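To: structure desk
From: M.T.
Subject: fold request, one chain
Message: Could you run this one when you get a chance? Sequence is below, nothing fancy, just the single chain.
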Amino acid sequence: MYKVVRGFLAVWSVALILGALACTRAAPDSVGSGPGFESPSGIAVEGDGDLVVADEGLLAVVRVDPLTGDRTILSDAHVGSGPSFESPTSVAVEADGRLVMTDAGLEAVVRVDPIAGDRTILSSVDVGSGTAFGSPRAIAVEADGKLVVIDLGLHAVVRVDSVTGDRTILSGMGIGSGPGLDTPVGIAVEADGRVVVADRGLNVLLRVDPLTGNRAILSGSGEGGGPGFVLPGCIAIEADNGKLVVPDAGLDAVVRVDPVTGDRTILSDDGVGVGTAFASPIGIAAGADGELVTTDPGLDAVVRVHPVTGDRTILSDADSGSAPGLQSPLGVAAESNGTLVLADAGLAAVLRVDPVTGDRTILSSAGAGSGPVFASPFVIAVESDGHLVVADIGLDAVVRVDSATGDRTILSSDSTGSGLGFDTPLGIVIDVDGQVVVVDFALDTVLRVNPITGDRTILSDADIGSGPDFVRPQGIAAEASGQLVVTDTGLVAVVRVDRVTGDRTILSDAATGSGPSLDTPVGIAVEVDGNLVVADRGLHAVVRVDPISGDRTILSDASAGSGPNFVSPFDIVVEGDGSLVVVDSDLDAVVRVDPISGDRTILSDFETGGDI
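Reply: Done. Structure tokens follow.
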């Protein structure tokens, strides 16, 4: 099935995302009034039935009326006192009605007063003792009031004392037996106190013993029947039957999981239930009446799901009612004439963007061009003859797009070309000899693709080439010398790869080169002078890296350069005049960055540029 990553994907962020630009989108056919969602992620239900949503784009907690869909900012930089949010990722409700939230930017758990919106750091490196958070992403409340937090950076479940803020590793980092946590993104507490974790890297649900921290696979990877997870997100537990419900952004579905057998059943997707199809469901909560509510950053909406029929109803959004703007732009490249081309996973399309006006034209989609329809186009590159190649992680394929007609042809996939099949192709570049080079996130591999036959050859992995093994490679670019540079979110590094031998060398990481450490390096490009520029989702920044020393300098972020702050910078390209263009998957925008001052200007988004 399809894999749509947003804000992770981010997070990989696809789950998983950060930053700051609030924008109200209202229109006659929107559902509910108030500020439009920008990147709704975590969701919870308050005691009175109101919904509270963590929105990483608005940098806010939004309260939603469950009847009207009206949205009110409960807490942000302008509502309530205390430290401003930097990347609010999830929310839970304590027994006394106060909210607790994870903030990956603050690396903290934040408590929010449900009336005033005041924010207090409950646990961080400065508040409470124990291992400091690395990247807290999801939170749940145990029966005794303690909190359990998923930390993506630590690959662990952290228990937090709700009074002192003290942190104890419950599972992971050497605590507990069983399969290690890889990319944990969701967490819930069952009635008997056991903790359930959704792991997007393993594509499983894990059950964690609350006393020992021991981990066992509950569903996925051979446990339980039914459709396999692709990109599982948050978890909710149904009160009447104890079953688990999990949104999956790869399946574009809500999956129900039997807590005894681990069997998986599609509760709602485009084939089960009627209503608006999901685009990228991430967050989920169960109401007292049994109805489910999900956040979908692809739709920028809260969707109500009927627990019996799977029918979907938009509960709250701010749909413009006009031609589609960007929905989840993830990849960007520049054509020879300076026009930009975008891969947009939310639209399942390739768009052209005028570099002067920001106007958008759909070049290739289900309604433009012939050939196999995109599932989740992720990144894009331009071949020497002007045709485009797109890595699609839903099709697990490289798709060639005719730059004139938009027609699509599978260049390389399990059924086209020989060699190791793709699993999650997240990076793509054209080599100096015209071959296509692909980074596969799940295989921890760089593959070379023959541009004629589609045959795949491993260029660099744990068995080919020397040097540190890839952990979660993602972005790739080619230097003038022909050497390749790869971002690796697991190593938190930029890795140089020899294009002949596949040897890997750390070019820049916490121990190599000076300057601010990388956090979640994703996109990468090479400037004319040879310097590297990296889009880092965790830092909400563009970082310049010296190609010799590995030294790092923040070129553009909230403190460097003016203009709208990044939320989730994902991919980056260098224009002919040296300017940088960044796609931000949570701003749903193309941002131009001055290479000297770091100033940021929106080139194309919902309000800048038009759809042609």
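Reply (cont.): The first strand starts at residue 9 and ends at 10. Let me know if you need anything else for the meeting.
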